[in-house]
Amino acid sequence: MTHALIVIDVQNDFCPGGALAVTGGDEIVPGINALMAEFQAVILTQDWHPEGHSSFASQHDGKAPFETTEMPYGTQVLWPDHCVQGSAGAAFHAGLDTTRADAIIRKGYNPAIDSYSAFFENDHETPTGLHGMLQERGISRLTMVGLATDFCVNFSAVDAAKLGYDVTVNQALCRAIDLDGSLAASLDGMAQAGVTLA
Ligand code: VGL
Ligand code: ZN
């Protein structure tokens, strides 16, 4: 059974000093690099927003980062501008061993819809194409690591479990944003979806 490592959003903007820094985001890089050798496939995801993306608080009058707004697809947290296509913040952390990656899935490029999950945009309908690629390659087991535990790792892991993959999240190699209890809620949600939390 082919087992893939999915490395979620290990990008400068999610590391200390970045626009949407996750505490300790950079600490997981050496451990992720070391883990890559144990997998038959390594896939990286990259948050990749056009300038003025609708998930940015700067695009919503009177809204501050980390407040929410209602979008046609549901409630959306509004973020500081981050991971703008081609910017230094959108680049992978310089220490991440990207040479080992078979594929890089970019997401969040649709101006009107955010995309936390590596599989579907936040409308839970528009696919990124990752599922088709994994199926064609006969990959049925996934281990996920990266940033942030409670957003992109969580949404990716739950979608993968719903799609029928055997999914493990390696918590030691993830770090969380943790907004209003979002970390605890995400751990509950992942466990309920059948994700193994290692
Ligand atoms: C993420 C918020 C906004 C993540 C991406 O990678 O978890 N979080 N965009
Ligand atoms: Zn984003």
Q: How would you describe what is shown here?
A:
Pfam families: Isochorismatase. With 198 residues, the chain is an alpha/beta fold. The chain has one domain (2-197): Rossmann fold (3-Layer(aba) Sandwich). The protein is built from 4 helices and 8 strands. It has helices spanning 29-35, 130-136, 149-162, 182-192, and strands at residues 2-8, 41-47, 68-71, 74-77, 103-107, 139-147, 166-175, 196-197. The chain has a 6-stranded parallel beta sheet. The chain is globular. The chain starts with a strand and ends with a strand. The relative contact order is 0.20. The protein binds pyrazine-2-carboxylic acid (VGL) and zinc ion. Pyrazine-2-carboxylic acid is lined by residues 9, 14, 47, 79, 116, 147-148, 151-152.
Write the layout of secondary structure elements.
Elements: E1 2-8, H1 29-35, E2 41-47, E3 68-71, E4 74-77, E5 103-107, H2 130-136, E6 139-147, H3 149-162, E7 166-175, H4 182-192, E8 196-197
Parallel strand pairs: 1-2, 1-6, 2-5, 6-7, 7-8
Antiparallel strand pairs: 3-4
Pyrazine-2-carboxylic acid is lined by residues 9, 14, 47, 79, 116, 147-148, 151-152.
